[in-house]
Amino acid sequence: xxxxxxxxxxxxxxxxxxxxxxxxxxxxxxxxxxxxxxxxxxxxxxxxxxxxxxxxxxxxxxxxxxxxxxxxxxxxxxxxxxxxxxxxxxxxxxxxxxxxxxxxxxxxxxxxxxxxxxxxxxxxxxxxxxxxxxxxxxxxxxxxxxxxxxxxxxxxxxxxxxxxxxxxxxxxxxxxxxxxxxxxxxxxxxxxxxxxxxxxxxxxxxxxxxxxxxxxxxxxxxxxxxxxxxxxxxxxxxxxxxxxxxxxx
Amino acid sequence: xxxxxxxxxxxxxxxxxxxxxxxxxxxxxxxxxxxxxxxxxxxxxxxxxxxxxxxxxxxxxxxxxxxxxxxxxxxxxxxxxxxxxxxxxxxxxxxxxxxxxxxxxxxxxxxxxxxxxxxxxxxxxxxxxxxxxxxxxxxxxxxxxxxxxxxxxxxxxxxxxxxxxxxxxxxxxxxxxxxxxxxxxxxxxxxxxxxxxxxxxxxxxxxxxxxxxxxxxxxxxxxxxxxxxxxxxxxxxxxxxxxxxxxxxxxxxxxxxxxxxxxxxxxxxxxxxxxxxxxxxxxxxxxxxxxxxxxxxxxxxxxxxxxxxxxxxx
Lengths: 249, 314
Description:
The complex is a heterodimer of chains A (about 250) and B (about 325). Chain A is built from six helices and 13 strands. With about 250 residues, chain A is α/β, with parallel strands linked by helices. In chain A, strand 7 (about 140-150) and strand 8 form a beta hairpin. Chain A is globular and about 65 Å long. Chain B has two domains: about 1-170, Rossmann fold; about 200-314, Rossmann fold. In chain B, a hairpin with a 2-residue loop joins strand 8 and strand 9 (about 125-130).
């Protein structure tokens, strides 16, 4: 195949203990470490492996967001992507509008495969890939743990509630990846230097003429209710007694 | 008035309990009329189960041999063909619903509310974000169809006792030839299902091997419990993926959750926050699991499990 398109979302790093802003307007992001959404990193790693096996010619990383997302795209280029596209907007982009943006880029780039993370760890929506597949009228293979390309087809193993589901899809298609697909590579310093010379195209969102979807509005953020403080028991006898007290055994 | 369509989840001609949980969520919406659609190859036994759920007034069956496969590309267009006239279309936040519902939403040209955990009004809900470290109140546009998934761990199944009418519906559907089901490898187990079990015993990487993880299975059997695991234990190959509990695995709400050799990463804790009682057994007294545990016991799990096993059997 020729091209693989990969989405990279800038999110609060997964190691950060997220705190809700006191005014309830969102979560604290000032001075907080930002990274590529971990699932997207796995998506990129998979695309790079497909290319390195000789099954694809070019890997293009795409992000939607403010100019800050260039950092994540540069990291993606350092990992090995060939070029990057940033669709620039300072507004929050809802999932359907995001899918429409990808659809527009698909019209332009004609990729054979779009690989995305199965969800972003900030809003935990798990929607964009499925929505893109719907409006593109192409197959979707969500929650994928293995992806085998065979010419114009792909065989995908999906992690589902009852176990594993294996499906075959015709390309082009959208695949969203789960954690066990691969372990993303570490970026080496020379690659970071090389990445600076790779093309990163910035497109203002307005230039794409996307019909914006009506967003679900986020009215208020609050911290989750804390669980009541528990008790420590000394030994198994204490544990069994406490469970009996609670009527659990 | 709200008119709500719930997409039934099923396998092997049996309704999945996630559907009764969606009904529980939908019945919190004021003045709601609740219908269930069964998209299946053999809808009648499933429809009969759905018709007996309290609060459901109508069950609609779309029978078609191609529905043997419940792939989103096959099911979504049939749901969309039914959507006219409904203010809300709900599905469960299981892998079935999470795969399907965004495809339904996009075909209807609307956004989706994922993982409803609380109903505040007909178009206002609470849902978790950032692995449950923040809860956001969302409002969906009232003039558009509202597509949502229901966070099944937040709801108890509605009881039986309903007596809905069952109607067959014909919708035009074509098999999308671009997507083909090859095989479903379902884990076979006689233990209670992880997602609906009243009790769950779960193990982490501290178990050390697939063989030693058997201790968890044995304890679960003594308690009549389902078995769960952390991502680390699944990654290490001790147990298959369908046992993973957490942000990227299953979100569960058993009455009793026994976490053994589990340190308590945020991503794991988000999967058990709604458990009734959390028991933690870990050798590290500073493990984060103790911050959420109702009952904590510090010690060597390889000494504790046999002792607990003996105490429970005795």
